[in-house]
Amino acid sequence: MKVFALLVGIDKYSGNPLNECVNDSNKLKAYLNSIKDRCEEVLIETLHDDQATKTAIVDKIKSHLYKAKDDDVAFFYYSGHGALESTDGLFPEEHDGTLDCLVPYSQTNTTSSDLLANKELRYLFHNMTHNPHLISVIDSCHSGNIVRSYVEESNNDNGAIRRLSGVFAPRPYKEFLFAGDKSVEIRNHGNLTLDIPYKNSIHLAACLSSESSWEDSKGGVFTNYLLQLLNATNGNLSYLDIARWSKMTLLKITSKKQTPKVTVQGEGKLSQNSSWLNFNPEGVKLMDGQVSNNKKLGWLYNKGMLLGIKEGAKIIVILDGEEIVGKVKTVHAEYAILELPMTAINKMDFNKSYPANTPWSTYDPLELYINNVDDDQEIADAVAKVLKQYEGVELVAKEEARFFVNCFNNMVYFSMPETEFQPLSKQIDYDSIKLEAELSNQLLSFIKWNHFYSLENPSMDFKISPIKVEANIGDGGWSDITNGILTINAETREKEDTNLFGTFQIRVRNISHEKLFIGVLTLNSDLSITSKPFDGNVIELSPKGTQGDSKLFYDHKEKDPSIAKVYFDPYKEVYNWSEEWFYYKFIINNYEDFSASIQNHSFLQPSLSPPLTITHPLRNAFENKAKGEGSSEELQEIRNRWGTCITRIELKNPTFNVITAGLKTFLDEYLESEELAPFIKELYFEDFWNGKEFEIQLKQNKFQSAEKATDSWVVKQLNKIYNTIRRRRFRKQRISGGNIVVAEGDSWFLYPRPGVKDTLDYIMNEYAVFSLADAGDDVADYIKNNELITKVGEIKPDFVLISGGGNDVLGSEIRSMLRKNVSNVQSVKDYIKEDILDAKMNFLDESYRLFFSKIKLLVPNVKIFIHGYDYIPGDRDKKIIEKGWANKYMIGAGIDNPIERDRVIHFLVDRFNDILKAYEEEFNFVGYVNNRKTVAYHEWMDEIHPNNIGYGKVAGNFLKKMKEFSSIN
Q: Dihedral of CA 210/215/216/221: which sign?
């Protein structure tokens, strides 16, 4: 790469001369010449004193910096005066009514026409043909009414402040560089506004608009410290590192505060984390904890109360590979003063910084509750072991928890307490060898998020909030949401996608009588932390009632300025979130800009991976939006104070509890997903009490009526869900060894109702069972779907269990087998159409023989277990009969006497069992389980299904038979 540098230094102003600006420029030139071995070529142009007129500066930018191509560096350095120029209402986007300007050389007294306004410099950069690594370094009071000042060396470093008095008068519009360029001028009803897009660039400023940029006999303080840092690090650092390090080293050095600041202009490849002069295009390792020396305060750590640092905390400084242990002596909001061993200090270079770290600290621990939904103590213990390793974590009762750590479906994940089946991040499979690492990684994000969510000044400097946060939705007017909640209704969707969204405006007002510095973090529901509302910067608000006492979020944006947009991520629709939410966390002080901190990765973090879904939803839904983003020196000295406030933003989901068309498209895939089916069940179905027992229905809302579990669609979905849950359990059990079972069946093997343990639930306690059972299926369904044969071929089980024929014998099929209104009954057979019964039994016989032959062919050593059900009671109450499957049809055929109904039931069940029992004698690989007279009268849940005790007895008969076979073999 080539470096194209333009260095401007001006001392010889008429009337207000400076002393060290040319010297600063020459030192920068020497530095750039020293790095030639790291570049293809360094091409430097200088403009000093009378050379540095406005025309000359503009010409050199065009003739020299414009040569830089995409892979090159364009470097602009200015050392000299800065000034303000009145807009006289010409540019309404300038809220304070002034333009920030550089002051080029002029032979006569400087006028407005001689100034180079910030908009003009922006225009010059915008017109560059290429997109180089563009950086501007301004060591002056480039914005605001305070100019570069001079410090005469003395014991107290006090010096006379030299400033250009007042504000320059507005120049005619035609004298601006961009006048007449129709590509950037916008006329709206006769009013002129400008649309000059920012060129992606880095801007390093020596100070804030309300501060002085100082110089001493050695030159500009900022430039000197910048060169010192570059030499100490060999230039291997980021622009944000420069701002942070400079701020620490300049503390208390000048008699008035000087706060260096880095800003990113426009969008592109450059960011605060880009490396100095693109020395490391792939990026540099960001400085985290650093210790550096301040001539007045001693050794400083670049973290303070905002990051949870406490007085007395232990700190470890790395000195030439050796760990030096010190402690925090005094802590401030952004930094801490250290107490280090004298033996270490004697070895330390006062011009260098050293890596350092402290244990993570916070004023409010992360309170977690382990929610063991699976009732699996092994998983819960493993989770607790990880959580207890972190000092910032406290395990509490569920009522006190900030977040839940859930153990569900053999997975571990975080959620809010009231929404345990809505993961906040990707679920972690317990069987994963990376469980501890993945859980720890997510936990660190939650600790950091919680730290800033709960962050308050322990001293409570501000007894009441000094700011007012106001919101405006549409044109509904401004409402106060300070420390409150803003609720937004999503009424439509974006045309270009299916995301729900809402728009709003946020305004921050200073309601105190002192100047305030305000930064804001966005704490998102995906655990990301960003600082976009003020473009990553800290803003300065004037005292209440003065110009500049309020600021809109996002008014730095070129498109839709001040409009915030919040999206509803697609995965949150899948997981049935009632609302999207996030927080704006405001950090406030009355004494200094802290942009260098709030832009640092110690404050920010990316989002965690989203919860599992079938599709791949958009990520970062809030990108560049809301997630979704006399002078003060003459006042009497006031006490430094800082504080916080927080506001919650909610976007309501209008399709809460609804299986939307989008979800329905992928519903089969969700219900067949081992990881996701249990979540769909918990999120979209609910248990309800019908007066006697629990049933399942779709959750109710105004868009859909509740459907009960007896409705065919719901039963079908629940069959999928329960089998999917069982398959995940099967996969886990199979790993541990033992006999493998494939089971096909009806509602005696799968009864999808809350609180019910059916036959397979008990058998699965002792065997790994792959379940194909579906409530409501009959033998014809088993043949049609062919799942049994397919899975036996894939899995090669030791045992196969079949529960089939109940619906064929005692279900609705019984209607076709009954004679109506029979009189003079001599035998139970008089009630039966024997030809139809014979045909049904022949079908069942042929079906079972087909299963046996195919299964035996696939797995020669297999053992198949079958059963013929139990005698269902004929004498049940009216409600059970009305909701039942057999008795109501017998009553419809005229069999009113329950004793006679019992006779019919016994006859049919015995006939079926006789067929099954014969198989055990015919085939040595078939085991017949006799469940007749197993379930007592009070052990029936409804007409044809046992309750938990009854199912347990049926399962016991199966297990006994299976174990008999195992012992023989």
A: positive
pLDDT, one tens digit per residue, over 881-935 is: 888 888 999 999 999 999 999 999 999 999 999 999 999 999 999 999 999 999 9
Question: b/e string for 327-337 if b means 16 or more Cβ within 10 A?
Answer: ebeebbbbbbb
What does the pLDDT read at residue 625? 37
Tokens of 6: 């333009």
User: Above pLDDT 90, what percent of the chain?
Assistant: 52
Strand ranges (E), 653-737 = 685-689, 694-698
Same domain membership, residue 158 and residue 207: yes
CB-based burial label for 632 (10 Å; 0-12, 13-18, 19+): middle
In eight-state DSSP terms, residue 653 is: -
Reported confidence tier of residue 141, pLDDT bands at 50, 70, 90: low
Cα separation, 173 vs 834, in Å, equals: 105
Contacts of 26 (CB under 8 A, 6+ apart): 9, 46
More confident of the two residues 610 and 186: 610
264 with 407, same domain: the answer is no
| DSSP-assigned letter for residue 238 | B
Lookup result for tokens 């915008």: 126
Rounded distance between C-alpha atoms, residue 215 and residue 225, angstroms: 11
**Number of other CB atoms surrounding residue 397 within 10 Å:** 8
Q: How far is CA 857 from CA 409, 789, 792, 793, 862, in A?
A: 35, 10, 10, 9, 9
* Cβ partners under 8 Å of residue 494, min gap 6: 501
Which strand (E) or helix (H) includes residue 671?
helix 667-671
Task: Say if residues 712 and 781 touch (Cβ distance below 8 Å).
Answer: no
Average pLDDT, the chain: 85
Query: Residue 519: which residues within 8 A CB-CB, separation 6 or more?
Result: 531, 534, 537, 538, 539, 586, 587, 594, 595, 598
pTM of the model: 0.73
pLDDT of residue 232: 75
| Ordered alpha helix ranges (H), 112-238 | 118-126, 221-233
427, 497 in Cβ contact below 8 A? Answer: no
Burial class from Cβ neighbours inside 10 Å (0-12, 13-18, 19+) for residue 604 reads middle
Where is the domain boundary, 403, 422, 454?
454
- Whether 964 and 879 share a structural domain: yes
Domain that holds residue 667: 657-721
Could you tell me where the DSSP H helices lie in 326-376?
Answer: 342-345
Say whether both 65 and 132 belong to one domain: yes
Is residue 68's pLDDT more than 50? Answer: yes
Amino acid letter, 315: I
Q: Report whether pLDDT(711) > 80.
A: no
- Whole-number Cα distances in Å, 279 to 67, 269, 394, 599: 19, 14, 44, 21
Work out how many domains the chain is built from and give that number: 6
Q: What is the pLDDT of residue 215?
A: 56
The pLDDT of 255-283, averaged and rounded, is 80
Residues 6+ apart with CB under 8 A from 214: 148, 149, 150, 151, 159, 220, 221, 222, 254, 256, 258
User: Is the torsion defined by CA of 911, 912, 917, 921 positive or negative?
Assistant: positive
Q: Are 747 and 772 in contact (CB under 8 A)?
A: no
Pairing of strands 298-301, 393-395: unpaired
346-403 pLDDT, tens per residue?
999 988 889 898 876 777 899 999 999 988 899 999 999 999 999 889 999 999 999 9
Token readout for 332 is 């401030």
Q: Are both 202 and 101 inside the same structural domain?
A: yes
pLDDT in tens, 476-521: 899 999 999 999 988 655 444 456 888 899 999 999 999 999 999 9
CATH of the domain at 380: 3.40.50.800
